[in-house]
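User: Fold this; tokens only.

Assistant: Input:
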Amino acid sequence: MNGFVDGRMTEGAAGLSAKLSAKLSAKLSIVILGLSITSSWGNGHATTYRALVKALADRGHDVLFLEADRPWYAAHRDLAEPPFCRTALYQDLADLGDRFTREVRDADLVIVGSFVPDGVEVGGWAIRTARGVTAFYDIDTPVTLAKLERGDVEYLSPDLIPRYGIYLSFTGGPTLGRLERQFGSPMARALYCSVDPERYYPELGAGQGGPRWDLGYLGTYSPDRQPTVDRLLVEPARAWTEGRFVVAGPQYPETIDWPGNVERTDHLPPDEHRAFYNAQRFTLNVTRADMITAGWSPSVRLFEAAACGTPIISDWWPGLDGLFEPGTEIIIAADAGAVLETLRSMSDDHRQAIGERARSRILANHTAAHRAAELEMFVAEARATVSTA
């Protein structure tokens, strides 16, 4: 089974933190076909890939990242040439085959990510071409499964799932068993998002005179998230006019009536995330409806904020208490009243203690180095399964 059950380490993953310095005796050659690593505009994939790939490189592996060249990302490339991997842009499937067949064929591990353009065709080609381990990395697992239930095969089809050697899922818990039983995955494993602690950490000097905002939220607009943003941030802002609030992220409709004490920032590149979190007394985490239903689906923003030591106010979903201890490492709020009570009444010492405990949890279990080591473990498991079949 995977290294985590309900978000907690199992025996198979026990002691992983202590073993992070141990590296595989052989370097892996890895090809990743992902949505984007060069542009974080309007997507959370780039941040995840950057942290994971950098950690893989730090552990001695060679990574080639292949990304479909799309105009909306080309106009917003905030890391055009990542220094920790080789990166190449391609136009379409024919271009992939012409230029990268050898790399995919000879790689020890080939990963195809969710929401890759023409993902079904790209995935089929990768599976047919690769001689090493193949994996589908689903950064959107509940969304993907909901799409499959509707017959939507935008980037993954049911017949591909059994053909991938590993299904790497952003969602843990019962969903992993469903992927194996219902969809036929030979090996479904949780590979949660993570954070690079060299990029996300507390800055004591941030915001001279104290934090700039009482509560902030970072996230691309999503219709199913907005009612919760309204309930847990907009309503408190209307009720507490002396409070200072901020919402950062692209694609919000101009029709939203933001209160005067809510600042709006459009796209916030990853290089500015740390300063953004450190400028808040509290930060808000809001989860998409599909993720709440599935549970065990932490967002990368959750881990980024915690790594910065910024106390988190979050909605509730199953499995959250396996990642953070409610009340001592994270604050759960169901309505505007609970948010206002926290913002107005919690002492600074209490607030900072919650942030510090959450940061300790992240450093112990959820850094990019942890994810890279877990991926190594899954690849070794897949190889062993094939060799004994």
